Amino acid sequence: MIKKETVSDATPHSQLTMQVVEHVRSLIASGEVKPGDRLPPERELARKLKISRSSLRAGIGFLSAMGVLKSRHGAGTFVSSGPPALDSSSLSVLGVLHGFLPWQMFEARLVLESSIAALAAERATDEHVAELAEEVAEMYAAITDPQEYLIHDVRFHRTIARAAGNPILAALMETITANLYEYRSKTVQNAKDLKESAEMHREVFRAIRSHNPNHAREAMEKHLNLARTAQAAEIEQISQSADAVETVTD
Hints:
- This protein is mainly alpha-helical.
- It has helices at about 15-30, 40-50, 55-65, 90-100, 100-125, 125-140, 145-165, 165-185, 195-210, 215-250, and strands at about 70, 75-80.
- The chain has a two-stranded antiparallel sheet.
- β1 and β2 form a beta hairpin.
- It starts with 12 loop residues before the first helix and ends with a helix.
């Protein structure tokens, strides 16, 4: 049984997550696992990567949110049948080179995703609507578990991007969402009102289900503006906590 990381305790959690991402990428690239295949058991993967199973699950959660993996209760974790979206790191590199700021990412997302929601309202199939309904239900069920909530939040937005029926827009959203997911996963633990967020998602869902493009656009804009404000509050709380720790240690 693996009880702790082999890597130093100082290793950032995100680094361990990306270690899992890179390993799965290599399995897919080498052809060792193909779309639809089941990944090796968690215990085996954790032992091979020399990390804890909790860190492994964080990496699997990230890949599931990005649509690369799908977990089936009681059956294991499988590689999605669609093309894996593991190359969104290019935007992270550009962000470092050019100093992209979180508010700029949100602004780009607002411009893109409000229009994507309108298109989804026009084009969503019954299957898309059913998937959105399931993710909304899962968000309500995960209100007390921010990390789990975030995974269903991302899946909800990915489904909308697919429902819009434009693979170019979907690819752009995938790139932005992947980077925002990594950033938000570090702050979401400080979220204060996930119920309000879930209700915003439900409003977007209802507009798409009703095939009302204008309502879908407005609901998405309202939701994303709320999300921007909420994340700013989460970051502020982290900053205040850090200041308090410094004051105590001084």
